[in-house]
Specification:
Elements: H1 10-14, E1 25-29, E2 36-42, E3 46-47, E4 52-53, H2 59-62, H3 74-77, H4 86-91, H5 101-104, H6 108-117, H7 131-139, E5 142-143, H8 151-156, E6 158-159
Amino acid sequence: MSKYDNLLTFEEWEKLCDCCGMCCMFKVLDDETEEVLATSLACPLLNTATGKCRSYADRGEKNPFCTFITPENLDELAENMPYHCGYRCVAEGRKLPKWHPVNRDNSVEARTIRKKLEPICTRECGEAVSFADVADFVAGCTVSETLEPDDDMLEEHIIEI
């Protein structure tokens, strides 16, 4: 059981995703340091114009390597997510960035999510990056033609983020 179980409904949990597309970028594990390195190579299901998956509902069927972020695996995966990521913010007890869709939306659902996060997300986000910066990064990435690029291809695309 996770400390995030019962915090949000499934639909609310999914809203923590800001659709930046950075989770859809392939990663490389450095064998020597065990550090996860980012690449500029994206899953072929990523729409780089929107930062959204072209097959979100059935992405696991179309891409068996797709990682689902759940309350159960959040703590394990959070450190490898972008600093601005809503899921990582929750894991680190930080408020969502001001530009996050949940903060920009005034619907009942968004207000409910913000209210539910208040007790655990008490620290300021501390992130100066704008969503436009993130979107520009994803728009400039290379979309892979395969769901499983080889190591040489991945190593050619390693980047600093």
